[in-house]
Amino acid sequence: MTSLVPNCYNPRVIHRTFIVDLSRIKYEFELFLLGGEFDLFEDDRLVAKMDAGYSTAEFSYGKLILSCWGDGWSRSWRVISCELSPERLTLECAKKMGIKRCALTLSRGAGERNALQSRNQYARKLSAMIEASLPGIRVEQAVTARNDRSHLSGVHARLVILDRNKRIAGVGVSDSELQPNVDAALAAGLTWLKELRRRRGSVDGLMIFAPRCDTIAIRLSALSNKTKVLLFRADETKGTIDPVSPFDQGDLNDRFRKAARRAHWPRPGMLPQDCAMLVESVRRLAPDHIEAHHRGPWVCLSIRGLEIARVWISRLRVEFGIGEARLKLDHRNEHELERLIQETISRRRPESELRNEMMFRYQPERWLESIISRDVTALDPTLDPSFVYAQVPTYRGEQRTFIDLLALTREGRLVVMELKVSEETEFPFQALDYWLRVEWHRVRGDFQRRGYFEGLNLIDAPPLLYLVAPMFRFHETTKLLAASIHQRVPIYRIGINEDWRRGVRVLMRERLN
């Protein structure tokens, strides 16, 4: 029988195809989705394990936009080219208005196996580093396997450490992990500490080993004294482990203090006249639906929390579109902006039957934020509806973050609100990060000096911290983590109705620490 396979065929050779035609890339992407769930990596770091039904590739203004989303998150990228190989798509993408490039990898099987192998190797290496750097310390056990029942992922190496007659829980995280995974080491450590005490009884404390420690060190400054936590910076390249002391904003060096004084704070309601006119020209297209928020160098215009346009303040330029699919507005495409606005109003509404569409699911927390900011008393009748600020900038040195909502009680006490619509392990500590920055600014009088809460005197008391989420969307570890935070940070859990898009109703309110 004559073979139909060419002599040059080698089954071990992986054949790759490079594609630049966007229509062909869209076709290959949709073909790939037929295979079901996949792992999504950005620059070789895991973004999420994706359900094929929660990702799309669509043309928008001549650009191919890949969008992926899940409960509580959404991302989009502009696709430039594609490398195709069995069980894998590698997409060259642009983000941040084309300023940055990245490689997205969609794969099945191999990526997860490689990540697991790498983490196992890290656990062994970390154990050797600990025993070499810390005299008298021995690592009895190192575990990386996932334990979903105890809410322990495979990202962090979990250690049982012996220090003479004491048993200590330990967690470590590799330098190759994304920064959010590094920051999550404290939450993972406290969860592991609880599990280890359940299994073995007396455990003396917790040791955390991380490559980049600033966020964890700041969080430790607000932890209660009930749990002994030691932090170490682990340098895999040098093979060294060094202790890191907890510190707060006030402990940052002079360079950070000077940077904070240079920080840009948008004065509420104050824009250059020509910019304000430009913002208003867009708002007039749907004044009952479009909201404007000053965010850094932009004024962002959104409908039910979904950004549909932005005004570049210094350049007096309007860009419109969703995600990375943005165009500069001019007289030739004004009708496209009007169409986008009407389409968003129609599809992004509580009664929509197209609930799996990206336009409905995109940026859900911003949608919740827009509802609460319009009537904050629905969340808490003691709050003053005249003073509610969304996306307020706060600074730590040159790093800027934005708080979901900053409000005020009728007595004049600040309230920091962090909003979630899905389970999130890090919820209490992410909210703590914002609280610490707000408190740092409060004691220095920054908010009133920058035009916030004009005409009012804030009472001299730490802000309240509200964790707001649908009733059954709080992670099981929320109470554990919130209880570890010092009582000087008054943390409240506020559970709302699952159908919050139709209006917010409070179902539960409790103090957590």
Summarize the structure.
This protein is of the alpha+beta class and 513 residues long. It is built from 13 helices and 25 strands.
Largest sheet: 8 strands, antiparallel
CATH class of the largest domain: Alpha Beta
Q: What would you call the structural class?
A: alpha+beta
* Portion in helices: 25-40%
Shape: globular
**Uncertain spans, ≥5 residues at pLDDT below 50?**
1-14, 251-256
The CATH topology of the largest domain corresponds to Trna Endonuclease, Chain: A, domain 1
Number of strands: 25
- Percent strand equals 25-35%
What does the model show?
By secondary structure, the chain is of the alpha+beta class. It folds into four domains: 17-107, Protein Yojf, Chain: A; 113-247, Trna Endonuclease, Chain: A, domain 1; 273-354; 364-511, Trna Endonuclease, Chain: A, domain 1 (3-Layer(aba) Sandwich). The protein is built from 13 helices and 25 strands. The strands form four sheets. Strands 1, 2, 3, 4, 5, 6, 7 and 8 form an eight-stranded antiparallel β-sheet that branches. A six-stranded mixed β-sheet has the order 9-10-11-12-13-14, sandwiched between helices. Strand 5 (63-70) and strand 6 form a beta hairpin. It is globular and about 75 Å long. The termini are far apart. 36% of the residues are buried. The model is unreliable at 1-14 and 251-256 (pLDDT under 50).
